[in-house]
Amino acid sequence: MIKRLLEAGVHFGHQRKRWNPKMARYIFGEKNGIYIIDLEKTAEKLKEACEFLKNTASNGGRILFVGTKKQAQETIRSSAERCGMFYVDRRWLGGMMTNFATIKKSVARYSEIQKIKETGVVDNLKKKEISQLTKEASKLEKSLGGVLEMKRLPDALFIIDVKNEDLAVKEAKKLSIPMVAVIDTNSDPDPIDYPIPANDDALKSIELMALLISDAILEGVNIYKKAENAAKKEKEAKDAEEAKGKGDVKAQ
């Protein structure tokens, strides 16, 4: 694991002048004015975070991936989709969780527009009305594309760069939603339940963190699906047995 972390440049932190003293316990040393992250601690914290998210997913929990800066957007989106979770990759809308009812209205509006298109109602509208609906749908999809299927608040968040995603952190903290986050040397790890000290700027580092996190979640999802299928089969067998019993009684 250490080799993979090293090859991805996970150990490179920020310049000394940009550091957050609260990250001192995760720093190995300094080279050419750049802080070097202790990869032993990264591996340790990563393991804890993966275990937590695996357990969350294995119990049917839903995880929201958050990463809106340019180099994180594609990775956040593809990693979340890979394990069937939600994501915010463009802009965090204020109140996305603390004012969830409003977000649900926007999601409902998007579904309504899609239904208008699918049922052919749109064919009876004027060009101007069609154009307005298309623009509205496009705007909603851009800002809410990754949460359009999120019917309730997430059970956990996975965040790339907490400094950049401070609104998401504040909302999750207020609602007591657990957070897993990639924390660089310029950030405050204290609000995060499962901080992973790592480079949150380099693409390779972001990709590796997201891959390992999504792997853990996928493992949990598979455990949940197996348990769900087993429970379904058990119920079907029980129902069949009860039906057979009723049939035997009638025959008598």
What would your notes on this structure say?
By secondary structure, the chain is α/β, with parallel strands linked by helices. It has helices spanning 2-7, 39-58, 70-82, 100-118, 127-144, 166-174, 203-251; strands at 12-15, 27-31, 34-37, 63-66, 86-88, 156-160, 179-183, 194-197. Strands 5-4-6-7-8 form a five-stranded parallel β-sheet, with helices on both faces. The chain has a three-stranded antiparallel β-sheet with strand order 1-3-2. Helix 6 (166-174) links the parallel strand 6 and strand 7. It is flat, with a radius of gyration of 23 Å. It starts with a helix and ends with a helix.
Total E-strand runs: 8
CATH topology heading of the largest domain: Rossmann fold
State the low-pLDDT regions, or none.
none
Radius of gyration: 23 Å
Distance between the termini: 67 Å
CATH hierarchy class name of the largest domain: Alpha Beta
Share of residues in strands: 5-15%
Q: What structural class should be given to the helix and strand makeup? A: alpha/beta
Based on the structure given, which CATH architecture of the largest domain is correct? 3-Layer(aba) Sandwich
What is the count of DSSP helices, taking H or I runs of 4+ residues?
Answer: 7
Number of domains: 2
The description of the largest β-sheet is:
5 strands, parallel
Tags for this model:
flat, 3-stranded antiparallel beta sheet, 13% strand, 252 residues, Rossmann fold, Helix Hairpins, 7 helices, 2 domains, alpha/beta
